[in-house]
Model the fold of this input.
Amino acid sequence: MLATQQMLDEMRNIVAVLIGKALEGDSNSAAILMAKCLPSIKAQAEKVNFEFDATAPISDQVAAVLDGVARGQLAPDVARLIIDSIKSLADVRATEELAARIEALEEASDARR
Done:
């Protein structure tokens, strides 16, 4: 407990020195304070609203996203996120379909025995 209190007291002194230097124009001190005291700003994708048919074939879905970019409804970086999501979902679906096919083949093989 005593060691913790000593560390806190020293930290207060260090922060006070950093603040003093930052106020005097020391950009390194200011950068340290900003990095430690302010929350990190994280980029957020904007919400979008455009015509999209999630049941359409994958190529049509990607074409709809690209059309949204061409019409100015989607920013290119947002479109990239959507296309990546479409690809990920397509990969999951393909894996599920493959697993179902293998299971059906195994069942058919077992039934013939």
About this structure: The chain has four helices and no strands. The mean pLDDT is 88.
